[in-house]
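Hi everyone, sorry if this is the wrong subforum. Our group has a chain we'd like a structural model of before ordering constructs, and none of us has done structure prediction before. Sequence below.
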Amino acid sequence: MELPPEGREDEKAPDEPVVEEHPPAVEREEEPAPPEEEAPIGVEAEEEKSEAEELRELLVRVKADFSNYQKRVEREFAAVRRSGEADVLLKFLALLDVVERTEKEADKYSDFASLREAVSIAAKEAGKFARDSGLERIPAVGRPFDPSIHEAMMVVETDAQPEDHVVEEVRPGYIFDGRVLRHAQVVVARRPKEEE
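Answer:
Right subforum, don't worry. Here is the predicted structure as tokens:
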């Protein structure tokens, strides 16, 4: 037998809110998470040993690469140095040629004027070589004595120059790359002693 529509329990009136019934919640105790399965000690040790071996091999390769890099840089530096030395030697050879020609021709000169001219050419070549190489000659004669660029070889009494000024250059000095390469050897003036 069928119940009339209003008699059904599962149907509610359209304006009544629908409430769903749930069974009361039962508090459960949290179960501990299952322990992660630990690898046996022997397997873990093997993995660490394998990783250590890989790291050791990597270290050996890096060390070899660095050693090869150092050797290559040393070879390249030596090649650059040799190239620079070759450039200087080529410039020097031009000077050497002039000096040797002058020496060979010296016997042919009957007068000193011709010999002087040949030596003057050699001196000009030497000066050009020095300038082209970056050498700067230190000024000396007539300048105040400066121990940072001059080396006093002798002191002479004279009125030709003020006291403590360079009277004569014995050997020229040179500056290279902003530093004194060789001090100029000079003779320094001192006032003559007054006779009483």
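For your construct planning: The mean pLDDT is 76. Residues 43-133 form one domain.
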